[in-house]
Design brief:
Shape of chain B: globular
Oligomer: heterodimer
Number of helices of chain B: 7
Largest interface: A-B, 32 and 24 residues
CATH topology of the largest domain in chain B: Aminopeptidase
Number of strands of chain B: 17
Helix content of chain A: 10-25%
Radius of gyration of chain B: 21 Å
Shape of chain A: globular
CATH architecture of the largest domain in chain B: 3-Layer(aba) Sandwich
CATH topology of the largest domain in chain A: Aminopeptidase
Order of helices and strands of chain A: HHEEEEEEEEEEEHEHEEEHEHEEH
Helix content of chain B: 10-25%
CATH class of the largest domain in chain A: Alpha Beta
Distance between the termini of chain A: 35 Å
Order of helices and strands of chain B: HHEEEEEEEEEEEHEHEEHEHEEH
Structural class of chain A: alpha+beta
Distance between the termini of chain B: 17 Å
Strand content of chain A: 25-35%
Number of domains of chain A: 2
CATH superfamily of the largest domain in chain B: Zn peptidases
Mean pLDDT of chain A: 97
CATH superfamily of the largest domain in chain A: Zn peptidases
CATH architecture of the largest domain in chain A: 3-Layer(aba) Sandwich
Largest sheet of chain B: 8 strands, mixed
Number of domains of chain B: 2
Strand order of the largest sheet of chain B: 1-2-12-3-13-16-14-15
Structural class of chain B: alpha+beta
CATH class of the largest domain in chain B: Alpha Beta
Chain lengths: ~325, ~375
């Protein structure tokens, strides 16, 4: 499991440029699914399970993109100006390192500031890739990069960039691997462009037209020194989402998840997230509406190069998902 | 690129007739939600060239020019928006003086003292400004809010002008050497380009042309047009700011202009990323390869904010590979912009050449 997570998180694939991580995932799942396809926007969709006409169509979604940057200008001295892809925070950039799709590495710094007590804006920052001139610079306008940080395991706590949402991707891959039989037709969707507005899940959900939707993504935790108040902590089980700022989970889906976890004695927490949303919102609002919910992996330091999750939560999320999808579903 | 790139339909050109048409398009008033004046011009232009023309529920003009031959063809949607930014009258204070609100993205600092045309009859008016004789030095330092501005048509209360009427900047079109100076170049340049593409539609694709409404208020027309067309590929033809000025805000200490967005006379601007769309890399490659092999100048628009109809098209139904190509223009969303005829000509040439070589193979590899 650790090596799968490591492979996934260390792959560079910012929103819109998911080809590398998609190929990696495809090699992992090709032999596990009944059918694997890639849609018009690049979502990777694997199908497994019952195909009787009575089978419930369940869409699981974990996004394979990550936040990053895109070059906007190379100056005469070879420094790279950039803008962000997805929710990058300014304070995580200073002295941070990035890696472009072709492997080029660089460090982020900033111009001299008039006011040293405030953070530089992105337009005051640049990437230094070690080039001495524009001609010398291997980066072109439009090249994309992700934050460059290796995977580490501190016991059961694992840390890396892009845990959001490669950890969800890992959960889906392992769930697919362990799913022997299902009366449901289960769609494992590895979605694109979540970090720029749930775009992949929006179009995948329209195409699949599911009966039930479940996103698997990270959520914040409230268990750090003087952190914000939130009743979710690492190691206390996967979080069953009740609401976030973009979605009110379907209460029947929440009950289904809670009852299933209780019956199978799988630890879980209930999640109310203030700020942020997931692919589940896009699924819920597709076509004439879909009952939707989300299983979240509690995660510290989201959208920094050091996102931390607990492997026990990951393991229990897989158990819970398996319980949910391998039995016939009757939402109350 | 495929070998069978020939088409019986000759390449379109920008000549005096096209410029005259652009003049009519730019001098028409079509603030978002009331695009009828531009729509009438578009319909008259495309009618002799297409059998399948519809005006949909929101007012989009949807034109289909099917290709020919037995080979499988891509259904390619091109979108150019007919609407422009402007004003809407919200209250008659009496004496021909109206309160108003802006429609679309307008910087209020652009407004005081500007001439406007109001309503379908282009009634002349002015956004009144307090004369310098009466202002204090403090007043001259601060911005005037839209709440305290009025459109004055100078006619008293006995007029057809009424609340709900739209207004635009009153700017006549002119040719200045290699340049065009006009209002609403965003996106009448795109509309004029798309009209030429309809007239000279390549036969290797099904060309689905959408002259869209309400782009400036949130890509609304393109959203429903894309749903109706259900295309394989989407291309927005739009206008984007050029800030390639000799001096700029950061130039003081020897800094170079790193935020020009695009440059005039550098050719069509191919998009990679804006707030609404991450352009499909297969389409980026196709356009860049086309430009390079046909020796058509092009530029990459700096990745950044903003959005075009491509955003709405790409998210339609189960997803549409999409991109934008824009003609650069200085001073976008103000009373008058400046664009180059060369960029218009090269944008038309790039699009026509790129469309003429599009086959389903383009999408055979995954994004």
């Amino acid at each position: 499991m650790k090596s799968l997570i490591q492979e996934l998180v260390e792959t560079i694939s910012p929103s819109g440029y998911e080809a590398k991580v998609r190929e990696l995932i495809r090699t992992k799942i090709e032999t596990l699914a009944d059918e694997v396809q890639v849609d018009a926007l690049g979502n990777l969709i694997a199908v497994k399970g019952g195909n009787e006409s009575s089978a419930k169509r369940i869409m699981l979604a974990a996004h394979m993109d990550e936040i990053g940057i895109i070059a906007t200008h190379i100056d005469e001295a070879g420094f790279v100006r950039f803008t962000t892809i997805g929710g990058v925070s300014r304070h995580t950039c200073i002295g941070g390192r990035v890696r472009f799709l072709d492997g080029t590495q660089g460090v982020i710094y900033y111009e001299k500031l008039e006011n040293t007590s405030s953070l530089p804006t992105f337009s005051q920052m640049y990437v230094d890739v070690g080039a001495a001139s524009r001609k010398d610079c291997p980066v072109r306008v439009g090249d994309v990069a992700a934050f460059d940080r290796d995977f580490s395991a501190y016991g059961d706590r694992v840390v890396s960039k892009a845990m959001d949402d490669r950890i969800g991707v890992a959960v889906l891959i392992e769930t697919l691997r362990k799913l022997k039989k299902s009366p449901n037709q289960v769609y494992f969707v590895f979605s694109v462009q979540e970090e720029v507005g749930l775009r992949g899940a929006t179009t995948a959900a329209f195409g699949l037209d599911p009966d039930i939707g479940i996103a698997v993504d990270v959520t914040r935790s409230g268990d750090t020194p003087k952190g914000h108040k939130m009743d979710v902590s690492l190691g206390s089980g996967p979080a069953i989402k009740v609401r976030d700022s973009g979605m009110l989970s379907d209460p029947k889906v929440v009950d289904w998840m809670v009852n299933t976890a209780d019956d199978a004695k799988i630890p879980y927490q209930l999640e109310v997230l203030e700020g942020g949303t997931t692919d589940a919102r896009a699924i819920q609002l597709t076509r004439a509406g879909v009952p939707a919910g989300c299983i979240s992996i509690p995660c510290r330091y989201i959208h920094t190069p050091s996102e931390m999750v607990d492997l026990n939560d990951v393991k229990n999320a897989i158990e819970l998902l398996l319980e949910l999808i391998s039995q016939e579903v009757e939402l109350g | 690129m495929s070998a069978d790139s020939t088409t019986k339909n000759p390449a379109p050109k920008i000549r005096a007739a096209q410029t005259r048409l652009l003049r009519r398009l730019c001098e028409a008033c079509a603030v978002s939600g009331d695009e009828s004046e531009v729509r009438a011009i578009v319909l008259a232009q495309v009618r002799p060239h297409a059998d399948d023309i519809q005006v949909d529920a929101l007012g989009n003009v949807l034109v289909i020019r099917p290709g020919r031959g037995r080979k499988k063809r891509l259904r390619v949607m091109l979108a150019a928006h007919m609407d422009e930014i402007g004003f809407m009258l919200t209250h008659h204070d009496g004496d021909g003086i109206f309160r108003f609100d802006t429609v679309g993205g307008i910087d209020p600092r652009q407004l005081p003292g500007k001439s406007v045309w109001v309503g379908h009859d282009h009634i002349p008016g002015v956004i009144g400004a307090k004369p310098i004789h009466l202002t204090t030095s403090n007043e001259r330092k601060s911005t005037i809010s839209i709440d305290s501005l009025r459109i004055d048509i100078g006619l008293g209360s006995n007029t057809k002008v009424k609340v709900g009427d739209r207004a635009t900047f009153a700017t006549k079109f002119s040719r200045v050497g290699p340049s065009i100076r006009a209002k609403a170049l965003d996106d009448r340049l795109g509309v004029a380009t798309l009209i030429e593409l309809v007239k000279h539609a390549p036969e290797n694709i099904d060309l689905l042309a959408a002259f869209t409404v309400q782009e400036e208020v949130g890509l609304r027309g393109a959203q429903v047009a894309a749903y109706a067309f259900n295309p394989d590929v989407g291309i927005a033809v739009d206008s984007t700011p050029a800030m390639d000025l000799p001096t700029w805000e950061g130039a003081g200490d020897g800094g170079e202009n790193s935020r020009y967005n695009t440059r005039l006379d550098a050719g069509p601007a191919i998009y990679l990323a804006d707030s609404a769309t991450l352009a499909d890399p297969r389409l980026v490659r196709h356009l860049v390869d086309t430009a390079e092999s046909a020796n058509i100048p092009y530029q990459i628009r700096q990745p950044g904010g903003g959005g075009t109809d491509a955003g709405a098209i790409s998210r339609s139904r189960s997803g549409v590979p999409s991109i934008s190509v824009s003609i650069p223009g200085r001073y976008t969303h103000t009373a008058a912009g400046i664009a180059r005829v060369s960029d218009w000509r090269n944008t038309l040439a790039l699009l026509h050449t790129a469309l003429s070589t599009m086959t389903p193979d383009l999408l055979a590899i995954d994004r």
